[in-house]
Design a protein that fits this description.
Blueprint lengths: L28 E4 L2 E4 L62 E8 L6 H21 L5 E8 L11 E2 L2 E2 L3 H6 L26 E5 L5 H13 L10 H8 L5 H4 L8 E9 L9 H11 L9 E7 L1 H4 L6 H6 L7 E4 L18 H13 L5
Parallel strand pairs: 3-4, 3-8, 8-9, 9-10
Antiparallel strand pairs: 1-2, 4-7, 5-6
């Protein structure tokens, strides 16, 4: 396989979107590393909000630096066309590079209060598809799937205070039922892929008309709904999505050699995943062993800007920052019911697509 021409990528600053709206008060504003945060409560209906405001950060990556650019292909030399078969006694020894597939796992919080955020993600997705198709070579194979953050069916009344659950560890554990214990039957729960229109995931090609993919995801993202357990566990959901325990619904979704895996989390709450973050990372790494493990996995998310850098609970932050590149993180928006979510296209658009395209250029094809 000949070396693939890389895409020249301009230096790109990642947009960290403005967070919470003003609820009528004048709360203090505190800035934390990489993302703007404000003193405000949980997004769940059981929590009483306090007023606060946030301001937008400058357009930077999570490290504060612009994304690196990718130069032209350094392997491709001049080609001679003399009309004759030539044999110089040697062969091209340059290593072929470039992924052949991209798998996108969207972990969507389906607890009460999430409807507007799901709709905003759905609205931003078509632009992301267009940008991703432009950033990847024609013929790159795509898989797009959704799982939710729920591991329990039944009464899930729960609240948080300062980004930490008010429930005991025992109560949190009681709302965590892994798929190895039992299948609770929830569509998209326990790390299973959400079944929509007869598909557990959508398979497409960058050479295809993207209209069908856009329509499928945009409908599925909102169909995830708000009926899930309020003990949200996105890291656990991502890990179990890669585990053989869910092969009945997930087999074939994650490809190994020659494929990029992107894990994207949409959640307005702290992560209550009940076991160590390393366990969920290890499950994903095991599914990408032939590709190179961590080096083939990217992460991103639209999350609570107040909670992401809050020292009370860093589970989600630790999980998303475990992979090969700093994650692309944006604000999910205000927790106040009358404040609509921001436009997510600053994150779910060119920024995310170009990081995927750049990572694809770095991965060796299978074989």
């Amino acid at each position: 396989m000949a070396p693939r021409t890389q895409h020249p990528l301009p230096a790109l600053a990642l947009l960290l979107l403005a967070g919470c709206g003003d609820a009528g008060g004048t709360g203090d504003t505190a800035t934390t590393t990489g993302i703007t945060s404000a003193t405000q409560p949980s997004g769940e209906p059981t929590t009483t909000p306090t007023s606060g405001t946030t301001t937008a950060d400058a357009a930077t990556s999570t490290t504060g630096d612009p994304l690196p650019t990718t130069g032209a292909d350094t392997h491709a030399g001049p080609k001679l066309d003399l009309g004759l078969p030539l044999d110089f006694g040697g062969q091209d020894t340059a290593a072929a590079t470039g992924c052949v597939a991209v798998d996108l796992l969207f972990v969507i919080d389906n607890s009460p209060s999430m409807g507007p955020y799901q709709e905003a993600l759905s609205a931003a997705f078509p632009l992301f598809v267009d940008e991703m198709v432009a950033a990847l070579p024609v013929g790159t194979d795509l898989h797009v799937g959704i799982t939710n953050t729920s591991f329990f069916v039944g009464n899930c009344s729960e609240s948080t205070n300062n980004c930490k659950s008010t429930s005991s560890e025992q109560e949190i554990q009681s709302h965590y039922i892994p798929p190895t214990q039992m299948n609770d039957g929830e569509n998209g729960g326990q790390g299973r892929l959400f079944q929509w229109e007869g598909k557990g995931f959508f398979a497409a090609d960058t050479a295809d008309d993207p209209a069908a993919l856009k329509a499928w995801f945009s409908a599925a993202a909102t169909a995830a709904g708000e009926t899930g357990c309020s003990f949200e566990m996105p890291a656990a959901a991502a890990g179990w999505a890669a585990d053989p325990a869910n092969a009945a619904t997930n087999a074939g979704f994650i490809r190994d050699a020659g494929a990029v895996l992107m894990v994207f989390v949409l959640s307005d709450e702290p992560d209550k995943s009940a076991e160590p973050v390393s366990q969920w990372v290890d499950k994903l790494v095991a599914a990408k062993a032939a590709c190179g493990g961590l080096e083939c996995i990217l992460a991103a998310g639209l999350v609570s800007d107040f909670c992401y850098d809050n020292a009370a609970d860093t589970t989600l932050k630790d999980f998303l920052e475990s992979f090969s590149e700093p994650p692309i993180i944006g604000s999910i928006g205000s927790v106040f019911p009358n404040d609509p979510p921001p436009d997510y296209s600053g994150v779910v658009g060119q920024a995310l697509a170009q990081v995927i395209g750049q990572k694809c250029d770095e991965i060796e094809p299978p074989g």
